[in-house]
Amino acid sequence: MTFIPYGRQLIDEEDIKAVGEVLRSDWLTTGPMVGRFEQAVCAFTGARFCVAVSSGTAALHATMSAIGIGPGDEVIVPAITFVATANAVVYTGAKPVFADVDSDTLLIDPVDVARKITPMTRAVIAVDYAGQPCDYDALRAIADGYGIALVADACHALGAKYKGRGAGTLADMTCFSFHPVKHITTGEGGMIATDDEELAKKMRRFRNHGVMTDQREREAQGTWRYDMVELGFNYRLSDMQCALGVSQVKKLPVWLERRKEIASLYDKAFSAPDRVSPLAVKAGVDHAYHLYVVRLAGKDERQKAYDGMRRQGIGVNVHYLPVYLHSYYRQRFGTSDGLCPRAEAAYGHILTLPIHQGMEDEDAQYVASSLRSFMS
Ligand SMILES: Cc1ncc(COP(=O)(O)O)c(C=O)c1O
Known about the structure:
By secondary structure, the chain is α/β, with parallel strands linked by helices. 39% of the residues lie in helices and 15% in strands. It is built from 14 helices and 13 strands. Strands 1-9-8-5-4-2-3 form a seven-stranded mixed beta sheet, sandwiched between helices. Strands 7-6-11 form a three-stranded antiparallel beta sheet, with no helix packed on it. The chain is globular.
């Protein structure tokens, strides 16, 4: 029985050759491929600057550092996201404040964001859950109105569009992830896209210990001297990874189309009013379908479907438990049930079905009929 994971990489000979060429070159890290990958993502997203880092988590951390988030500050994040979104706030000593999500899309609700703003609020991190962009017009109005930063966690949304504008251009800074389940991969990896040159400069420094120049720049300048001006991290992405990224990004437009085709097969399979309903897609958005999430009507159906489909070789998953219900958050911030009722209600019913560029139509049909067989 072949297993259909919920997401997985697609690697071809061209990718392997690209990495092999770097292995035979002088620069395994912080060489010419880093800039080439950054340029490729700029060209794809339409952002002016891109900064490659070692993961999506590092990207989020870099954005928090670039805008000077620290102890005493609050940053608003959605209740439903991967823990890394909120963790990036905690790394800085600031407090994540959880906003509830829209019940139909599970995207951060701008009305609840406005409600959660206090004099300590410094930023909002909007998460393009599953690959659907948030309501950026409303979020931009709030951010500008209160003079706070708008950061996009688009780790699910490379290639998504909102009113014709690409993910990477919708917020002050946008984070991407290149983990193998994402649209393209570098093994581990991340990127921040921004139109702000100053912020880009700060994040380049942050990924390299807070040092003003990198090794290659010093070689070119013929000097050993460097100055560390702030505390940074080693969040660099290697040239081997960037070469893989450059090779992968070429295939992204075709892969996004394939993801859409799989999604429309599922849409069709679950179009009748039923015990299975896909999450809503808002008008004016181009969904990047990192995840395909359905809501199951009954209370016990999710566990039954999860167990049964797994037994049939289908890698269904659940994204996500509201972050503040994890033990760490309960203990550190005293959060508990009832904080974001819509997120909590949705969590009991959602199931993520497999979607990735390597899937065949028959795989999607098998997944859909398997799910239906577990609905009472
Ligand atoms: C919404 C979201 N944010 C951040 C991350 C972190 O990305 P990475 O795994 O590359 O650190 C992920 C990864 O799954 C994610 O789904």
